[in-house]
Amino acid sequence: MSAEATSPGAPVRRRSRPRIDLRRLGRAALFGPVSRDRLPDAIAHVAEVHRVHHPDADLSVLQRAYRLAETSHRGQMRKSGEPFITHPLAVTLILAELGAETTTLTASLLHDTVEDTEVTLDQVREEFGEEVCYLVDGVTKLEKVDYGAAAEPETFRKMLVATGDDVRVMSIKLADRLHNMRTLGVMRPEKQARIAKVTRDVLIPLAERLGVQALKTELEDLVFAILHPEEYARTDALITEAADGPDPLGAIAGNVASVLREAGISAEVLVRPRHFVSVHRVRIKRGELRGSDFGRVLVLVGEDADCYAVLGELHTCFTPVISEFKDFIAAPKFNLYQSLHTAVAGPDGEVAEVLIRTHRMHKVAEAGVVALGNPYASEGASQTAEPADGERADPTRPGWLSRLLQWQQSAPDPDTFWTTLRADLAQDREITVFRTDGGTLGLPAGATCVDAAYAQHGDAAHACIGARVNGRLATLSTVLKDGDTVQPLLAEDAASGPSPDWIDHARTPAARIAITGWLDAHPQPAETGQPGGPADPGPQPVPPPVPRTARARTATAVAERPDAAVRLAGCCTPVPPDEVTGIPVRGGAAVTVHRLECPAVARMEAAGRTPVAVSWGDEQACRVTLIAESFGRPRLLADLTEAIAGADAAVISATVEPPSEQRVRHTYTLRLPDAAGLPALMRAMREVPGVYDVSRAQHPAGAL
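The structure assignment produced for this chain is given below.
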């Protein structure tokens, strides 16, 4: 944890703002006016910052932790030549500036002692309690001598598991990485790039998900400077040039402040400059930057209701850009972020983005989970008290972290874990879908019904044959939207399993790992050649038509034209006791009998055909065409044929269309001895596992 680096330089600040500027907590803040080899007053800087956020904090524990850290690290030097104690002090100052409580600061002072000195976890536990010991253990690296190349991914796995029980573990790790990134310049360029890439792929997404924007933005700028030095230099030049030019945001902020004063709304209005990566992204998005693109107007108020009052005044007195409006107060982001976003045009046409939030929202937006303090201690309880049952229950654990902890258990291989972790963290938006039992599922944006099935049912989702989304049947590849209600449909046959194409539909690591594991454990025989996998029926033999050695008896229909030949329409296959009508064909020489609701009747009447009254005769045998819609699975065709045979129906012809997205369409032309048995037959076919609908044909059937 003692990596070193050069800071790419502080961004130009044209106007003060309430963003936590962590860069100023450098060596001068650590040492003050004293000489470099003297450190006795260094902890006073931590105490001063800590008192701002926690006036009643007990500082004696910090003093004891500092003495132990300074003594144990004495004689150790960083590669920059500074005493090693400057590193835990800097990490602790970063967390103190964010408002971390005393237990977190105590652990941050000691976070390298177990890893780099003779101090043991038992000593930390005995001196500072279980809570501090747990945090120190959570951020302690695994030894390369024991894990080899797997040390880094397994260390991150250990930290994430510890974070699942206490989010403060990752807060310390993020602050630790920030100070190391600030001082990375003494490393070889290739090592700088390696550390920067891990920071980009893992630590920055974690900072975003935990809502610690103050850490995330500086880490982004530091990584940007190392991995893209030319783009960084170009962005730096643009910011410097803009700082020397007109200040349109300042003028707009002044107008906003005047409007709010006249409306009697107490608010603080400031200009919030963008950091380097944000300016770079805006330039890529818009091509040419405007003067107002280098920052945003920030409005801070006292109460939630004031946020909406400010919004109303701005949209009344300025021209709003409606497409830019977002309400993250009514619908907070998954990383605790709350704010109103809008954009307004000033009198000169300059468009400014405006953020509206309360002071409390702003603190959480900057510090994220760090601003929550100790979420494990009840009001009035000691922050270091141990849970009575020995288990930690984190009421703030976000859904993405719960999912991560779940799937990592199924990824014992370090390479699989490391690759999957990076892919998982790359998904930076989350949706919430509802279950039919009233529960909710948190899923990454772009998740499908496959992901919902595995999130709700675990490995039992191997038997999933489809889903209902908002009450309607949907394919497993259906992409879910925020607020959807999803109901995975599971087959009764526990032996059924996922198809290989499910991998293409899965977005969550848990689903992908489970599907891959099942497919690896159930390899397909090479000779089957079924592209759809075990859940795909593929090309299956269709029962041959019944030999037609004699004319099949069928239900008789009598038309009012006794001299006309009467036949039953193949498009709707009417049977007794359907309400029917006749349509004359071939100049009235024949009458085709249709069900009244058949679409062909309306078309023919519109064409000038006059219907003919038709009634059923005494013969009750009938021929009917049924269409069965189902999800593919093994033995589906055999089970359907068995259900048909059980109703004493004979198959005249049958077709099975090629599977499409796990759905299969079967068309059967059947002869029943009695039309009264048709409803029972259709019920029997619907009860076959995998079949979700059986209907009468409403279009010309190719089998007729």
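Interim note for the steering committee: The chain is about 40% helix and 15% strand. Residues 276 and 396 are 31 Å apart (CA to CA).
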